[in-house]
Amino acid sequence: MSDENGTGPGSTTPSPGPRPEEIRFFGTTWVDHSGGYALRRAAVGVGSLLAAVAGCLVLRFAYQGLAIADVGAFVNVLVIVMFAVCSAFAFNRMWSGFSERPDPDRQASLRGFLTIGFVGVLAAHALRCLTEAPGEKLRRQEYETAREQYERRTTRRTRNPARKPGTKKKR
C-alpha cells in the first residue's frame, strides 16, 4: 500500500489515501470487480488448469523415458513419489500464501520444491480462481486496514493545532 496521493481504480481524478496493490493479470480491478474482472478470473483459472494438464503430460513423457531407459522400479517409484510430494507441498504453500504473506527468506529457500511441484502451484491457482482472484482476500484486508488507518489519521485533525486548549487568545 502506498499512502501517497494517486488515482483510485477506475477514476481519472486523484484520490487521497492508500492505493490498492496490483494483482498479476488483474491489476486493481479486484477492488470493485470492474474492467472484465470475471472474464479475467475465468481465463486465469482455465489457463492454470490447461498449464497443469500440459505439465502432467510432460511428466508422463519423462516417466516413459525412464521406462524406456529401464532404470529400475526403485527409480520409477522414487520419481513418482518425489513429484507427488512436491506437488502436494507446493499446493499447500501456495494455498496458504493466498491468505497470509509468506516469509520471503523461507519462500526463497523452498523455491526448488515449488519448482518441482509446479503442478500443485497451478492447481492451487485454478481452484482459487473459482471463488476470487488469487490473493484478493489478503490484499483486500490489507487495503481496508490501510484505508481505515488513513481515515482515522485525517479525521482526527479538526482543530487548529497552534491553539492549545485552555489558552486564551491575546488581543
Brief summary:
The chain is mainly α. The protein has helices spanning 37-69, 73-97, 104-109, 111-116, 118-128, 136-155, and strands at 6-7, 14-15.
Protein topology:
Blueprint (H helix, E strand, L loop, with lengths): L5 E2 L6 E2 L21 H33 L3 H25 L6 H6 L1 H6 L1 H11 L7 H20 L16
Antiparallel strand pairs: 1-2
Helix pairs in contact: 1-5, 2-5
Model description:
By secondary structure, this protein is mostly helical. Helix content is 59%, strand content 2%. It is built from six helices and two strands, in the order ββαααααα. Strands 1-2 form a two-stranded antiparallel ribbon. A hairpin with a 6-residue loop joins strand 1 and strand 2. The protein starts with 5 loop residues before the first strand and ends in a 16-residue tail after the last helix. The N terminus is likely disordered.
In the predicted model, the low-confidence regions spanning at least 5 consecutive residues are 2-8
Span from first to last CA?
Answer: 46 Å
Helix content percent band: 55-70%
Total beta-strand segments: 2
**Estimated share of beta-strand residues:** under 5%
